[in-house]
Amino acid sequence: MSRFIQVGGVKIGGGAPVSVQSMCDTDTRDSAATLAQIGRLADAGCQIVRVAVPDKAAIAPLAEITASSPLPVVADIHFDYRLALDAVAAGVSKVRINPGNIGAPERVRAVAQACQAARVPIRIGVNSGSVSKTLLAKHGAPTAAALVESATTQMAMLHEFGFEDICISLKSSSVTRTIEAYRLMRQVSDVPLHLGVTEAGTLYHGIIKSAVCMGALLADGIGDTLRVSLTEDVCEEVRAARAILQALGLRRGVEVVACPTCGRTRIDLRALAYDVERRLDGYDRPMKVAVMGCAVNGPGEAADADFGIAGGDGEGLLFARGQIVKKVAQEQLVDELMALIDAT
Questions:
Q1: CB-based contacts of 123: which residues, under 8 Å, 6+ apart?
Q2: Which tens digit of pLDDT belongs to each residue from 298-337?
Q3: Cα separation of the two ends of the chain
């Protein structure tokens, strides 16, 4: 088990539930737009949000954001250590830096001291594009071992300054390299780990890469918090992350299962399944809902579902926990399903 850090009101590591993060794509200097997006992320189930802090002009709006945000805010800092100091003073709950691009050791010390005084943890964010030339020469490429050595070297620097409140990420666009790096890291340290695949891509490919990578790690008990990075609306990152956790039994919520259809299907099952998913969006009650194509794959194969419908020809079955409730006209299947769920 990893040790834990506290990010605002969210505990990371130490046996706490795996938390979901995302990052705003708004201009942090526009506090109204950023807060509006944070509100959407919170509604989608996000627990921690990161914002870019590109320059001094972002600091005053950042203070407004931290004061009003419903989520703990992480400041993403690169190159200018003074921005990290200002972000801590602005009330952020965590700072994400790469000590390797902050500059001389005394600058890293200044960040560590400011974070220590404010009880603000630091995430060391290592990715394949930030490995130093020295380590690249040593390892020949941004290998998993190079990523881990980069992280442990930078962590040792913070430890030298008496700072222990650390989280680490080791991201690559390669799924296999990322998995290997996190597994290596877990062997050498119990520091909390933030999971992610960098530059994962658009919705379809990005979710697949993230699910394969994070699923493999989380199934082995590796990972304390995560972000699914997508070239897509940020709320899709949160939905994908929650689905990954739910698939592994690490989070409970609404789970919709649907059969793949076959030649027996006499109903537009795809439209039916999407309709059920849409209408259940926003329900946070743990339940499993099945949308099946026919009576063969109905109550029998979906016996462990709390509620379900099975299509037929002009009519279908409404069932609960493997027991048929009644037959329903096809056009009323979803309405009757929702009525049953709401009444139970």
A1: 74, 94, 95, 96, 97, 166, 167, 168, 169, 194
A2: 777 778 899 999 887 888 899 998 889 999 998 899 999 9
A3: 38
**Closest by Cα among 192, 149, 190 to 21:** 192
Cα separation of 126 and 99, whole Å? 9
Residue-wise pLDDT tens digits, 103-124: 889 999 999 999 999 999 999 9
What is the distance between the alpha carbons of residues 130 and 133, in angstroms, rounded to a whole number? 9
Decide: 119 and 100 in contact? Cβ < 8 Å. no
In one-letter notation, the amino acid at residue 230 is: L
pLDDT tens string 179-233? 999 999 999 999 999 999 988 889 999 999 999 999 999 999 999 999 999 999 9
Query: Which SS3 state, helix, strand or coil, does residue 162 take?
Result: coil
Q: What angle do CA 21, 126, 48 make, to 5 degrees?
A: 15
SS3 of 189-214 = CCCCEEECCCCCCCHHHHHHHHHHHH
Give Cα 52 to chain centroid, integer Å.
Answer: 17
Dihedral over Cα of 23, 26, 28, 32: its sign: negative
Q: What is the mean pLDDT of the chain?
A: 93
- Contact indicator for 29, 39 with CB cutoff of 8 Å: no
The continuous run of DSSP H or E covering 125 comes out as strand 122-127
- Residue 35 parent element (H or E): helix 31-44
Kindly state the helix (H) or strand (E) to which residue 231 belongs, with its residue range: none
Kindly state the DSSP code that residue 331 receives in the 8-state scheme. G
Do 176 and 197 meet the contact criterion of CB atoms below 8 Å apart?
no
Mean pLDDT of 87-107: 90
**Distance separating alpha carbons of residues 217 and 210, to the nearest angstrom:** 11
